[in-house]
Specification:
alpha+beta; eight-stranded antiparallel sheet; four-stranded antiparallel sheet
Length: about 375
């Protein structure tokens, strides 16, 4: 299916990032006899506002500290370390001078990232001091461009010890008071260094039953005080196989991962997320969930240059479930730095489970991108 639609039944006119705007819209509806049972955040930018509204209305909500731990990566790291959860060392910086001091303390290589952002935006690997200075400038430029749109907390950045590996997963965890249960583990595929753009996600990962991995993800959620809803835990494996928590988000995974989880497990993860906010105990449902197939989403990436033409309409491989092309003739295709450099997406299904990491999602996406996008590679900026 091409250009699969995703729609809502009803919407309120409000700024989802602003608690007062949301409360005003909710109160206007209350005059007509409509009141919410709960407000549920679905992305990083609404975790704070949704839970602030819930607290104001006396509804189930994450605590202020849990929200701060999930949004502020510096606070997150401190909470993880305080709970003896394995996570890379990091320091918070704002200026180039502070950056150089952090490099002396941590050593190279490092990852530089905004302390409140997502989608791999502004995340850069630096192997030299010169690269680190350039990386901080690039990260600052991303925040300058997107900060106001996404209600970013401020112009601050983490300088983080680099776990030298491209072996990474994300873990969806149902959270409760002092407990948590893993629902699904997703295999992640990343763009070439020095960036960390996610190029594909596959569910379930062959590591789904890894007890050490699952325990680490659970302990990370408990350490941050996330006591309701699904949390999204990103974990990297070092060369010796040791898992390290990179980040934790107090909301379901993005990038279409939830659709892949639903198809692989025949269980709607949003039902689990919303149900938890409503106070429904779904831990037994999650614990019993088993995958019966493999599902993936991969992002189309044209070769670098100016897109001259978009050739759609050729027969698709049998494993393709949906295809959505977002780029058009005349667009500039650049390096895969973050979510904003994609030219489309493809969703895939296989009636089997993989017992090791497969390159199929990125292979199919590359083959489709090469046949769809006609690129003038000499016309890049």
């Amino acid at each position: 299916m091409r250009k699969r639609n995703r729609t809502f039944d009803n919407m309120l006119s409000a700024d989802p990032k602003d608690p007062e705007s949301l409360l005003s819209a909710i109160r206007a509806q209350a005059a007509q006899g409509w009141t919410p049972k709960v407000v549920v955040p679905l992305n990083d930018w609404t975790v704070d506002s949704a839970n602030a509204v819930n607290r104001a209305l006396g509804l189930g909500a994450l605590g202020v500290d849990a929200v701060n731990n999930a949004r502020n990566k510096h606070a997150m790291k401190r909470a993880l370390l305080d709970a003896d959860v394995r996570t890379p060392r990091s320091l918070l910086v704002q200026s180039e001078e502070e950056l150089l001091e952090a490099l002396d303390a941590i050593g190279l290589p490092v990852v530089i990232k905004p302390y409140d952002f997502g989608g791999s935006g502004g995340v850069v690997l630096a192997t030299t001091r010169e690269e680190a200075v350039a990386g901080l400038a690039e990260s600052k430029a991303v925040i300058a461009q997107y900060g106001s749109s996404f209600n970013i907390l401020g112009d601050k950045y983490l300088v983080e010890q680099f776990v030298d590996s491209d072996d990474e997963v994300s873990v969806e965890v149902l959270c409760g008071e002092g407990r948590a249960q893993v629902l699904a583990v997703t295999e992640k595929y990343l763009s070439p260094r020095p960036w960390f753009a996610e190029t594909a996600h596959l569910v379930p990962s062959h590591r789904t039953k890894d007890a050490e991995l699952n325990d680490l993800a659970v302990r990370a959620c408990v350490a941050l005080g996330v006591d309701r809803g699904l949390a999204h835990v990103e974990i990297k494996f070092a060369a010796d196989g040791t898992p390290w928590v990179i980040e934790v988000a107090a909301r379901p995974g993005g990038d279409g991962i939830m659709d892949q989880v639903e198809r692989a497990y025949a269980l709607n993860p949003y039902r689990v997320h919303v149900g938890s906010y409503l106070g429904v105990d779904l831990f037994d449902v999650v614990a019993a969930a088993e995958p019966t197939r493999t599902s993936a989403i991969a992002f189309l990436k044209a070769r670098e240059g100016r897109i001259k033409d978009v050739l759609d309409g050729k027969p698709l491989p049998p494993e393709v479930r949906s295809l959505n092309i977002s780029a058009k003739s005349g667009d500039l295709s650049t390096s895969a730095k973050n979510w904003s450099n994609r030219e489309g997406l493809v969703e895939l299904d296989w009636d089997r489970l993989f017992d090791e990491k497969t390159s199929l999602p990125v292979d199919v996406a590359k083959e489709l991108a090469d046949q769809i996008f006609v690129v003038d590679e000499a016309a890049g900026e």
